[in-house]
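Quick one: structure for this chain?
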Amino acid sequence: MQALGFSSNDAQPTLFEQDMPQALGHDLLIEIEAIAVNPVDTKVKAAIQGNLIEPKIVGWDAAGTVVAVGENVGLFQPGDKVFYAGDVSRPGCYASHQLVDERIVGHAPKSVSATHSAALPLTSITAWEALFSRLKITDADKGKTILIIGGAGGVGSIAIQLAKQLAELQVITTASHSKSEQWCQKMGADYIINHHSDLPVQYRELGVEDPDFILCLNNTDKHFTAMAELIAPQGTICTIVGTQEKHDLDCLKTKSAGFVWEFMFSRPLFKTSDMIKQHHLLNSIAQLIDDKKIVSTLNSTLGPISSKNINLAHQQLISGSTIGKIALTAITD
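Got it. Here's what it folds into:
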């Protein structure tokens, strides 16, 4: 098989050959048709220490076809079209083939292309888990309000749609310029404010109730004080962005407000007993796409997986101004 990998944290990605892996246990061997890139790709690359003998394969968003299955597989068979984010502790998807545990793989949407499917898994899992597993939003919360900080990125684009279409919440989101505002409107946001300006002032100018839920997808350190001020009594804040600073959670005490984390790799990383929930939620996402209740957040396709295109994709991710998702097609000979 072919793969694109990094031999050090400052090296250019290189194309190399390695033996085709064998599917055992719950693993699927998947021939990759398209991938999408995410900030985690650049972070894992930056964390490489020293010079590696065999380049590290990153990438955790893909769509493709099952070509072989392990002896314990019961959810898929060869020929199935699938999409998945995978496991950050295993080799990634910048490759022609990849092994992935069936319990974190979904049947791909039937109504969209491989590139549109590849743009969905990581952000959909993150948004779904943040809303329904961490913030614990249920049918009883219909009509309540959520503030999504960073609505135009990959996770925000899906979170807006799920919060509006599935949870039936009032959605206030943040954006930083006119194009991202337009994107958030397209995704279904009710109100849009600017996260580069004073959030509490802008929010209160809307004349809506304080948010019952806050989902932070942009710089937790910068927005922590504003989130603590805005969150409604007995509300919950969820963030996916790690902190560099220390924050005093006592400021949430008088409101009995909660603070939780979402990291979509927790289930596969720790082999939790409910890993299969990611299989089920990806199937739900595929059905929502096919039923046209939500849309893929793909915004650009750069061409096939190559050193040049991966570098370009990473530059766009690092800029912090990406709208929606960036996809690439399969490695070409």
